[in-house]
Amino acid sequence: MSQALEPHATTAALQDAVRYALEEAARRGATEAEADASVGQGLGVTVRLGEVETTEYQRDRGLAVTVYFGKRKGAASTADLSGEAVRTSVEKACSIARYTAEDPYAGLVEPQALARDIPDLDLDHPWELAADAAIDIARRCERAGMSVDARITNSEGASVSTQRHTGVYGNSLGFLAGFCGTSHSVSCSLIAQQAGQMQRDYWFTAARDPLELESPEAVGIAAGRRACARLGSRKLTTRRAPVLFAPEMARGLVQHFIGAISGSSQYRKASFLLDAAGERVFPAFVRMSERPHIAKGLGSAPFDAEGAATRDRELIDGGILQGYVLGSYSARRLGLKTTGNAGGIHNLLVGSAAPRSPEALLREMGSGLWVTELMGQGVNGVTGDYSRGASGFWVEGGAIVHPVHEVTIAGNLRQLYQNIVALGEDVDVRGTIRCPSLLIGEMTIAGD
Fold first, then answer.
1. 6-229 has which CATH code?
2. Is the confidence at residue 315, as pLDDT, over 90?
């Protein structure tokens, strides 16, 4: 079978498996059922100091089925897509459902929420990459980084990864659809040494389409320059000062926000933004928009994990929270409707009406800490208390003075969001959350 026909043949086989699971569930008396079948394949290599450390081929497949007997739910899964294995999984799910307690909120998504038109989002761009070619790319990446400066003395490795996933979802409401998607990346992590001090840093590129990746040499050079820039890092005395988050670090602040407004956090009353819909959570200039249908977007999807249509929506408009991130179950728990977010958010665009250049952000900060790396997991989703290890650069008069390490930045997320001063124009598109640099007026910086 030719490569061009393979994704269509795979999708058809997965549809057959899902269709059979749903038919078998109905035959066994289930009032509702849903099934999700997928196949994933990929290649990953890592090279360190020119030598191959790992070469990994991956091929996974599986089917998960959920059945409902009234408001009783059962679920089972299998990595075998044969008819017998699917039939056994459905039998197990039905058996489980008969012994579980009723949940008044259980069930499939409402029929009117299902996706009717499935747009082609141009997500499938296979990279025909043999292991030898991937190893060569990784070596080129690391070699370029090591050649940046004589102070780069070691490497944590350069990696190349290519993944392709095909998934099909169906339910007893008549929904049956699927699509293929790819993701590719090149990364490098290097170590620089000077006067007895060693510092590491990294860089990476990621995209659906391999033609849109940065060159391996560019990734290596960026990693090398970043590692050298951190040499001479110092600690700071404890103080309060403005903090500027680089885009890849600012994304984490937004992730905490998404977690707080997710349906599960809301109905469990485990959120520092509990019942905050309609409130001003950010300054008026901040806007957050979900755009699920961006062509080739890393977070793009034509429908969510329940088959609900994904749609453009504003999460933050004029700084005000417009609603929550909901699947059907959490929506019912809250007396609301699904927002098409079963499985998570899809391409969240973070920005403002007047974004600043990186240089302008440094000037606006004046004196403060520019954070380029975070460590630790010190975030309390219930209270919003935030404390993370950090490193980066100390800035005075809008100019970088020296690199900084071994400090802790702290505050409360609800207050930090309100204290955002400006957003950058340097949007990082290498993820589901597309976020620029973010300047906070003041945080506690704990050091010596």
1. 3.30.2290.10
2. yes
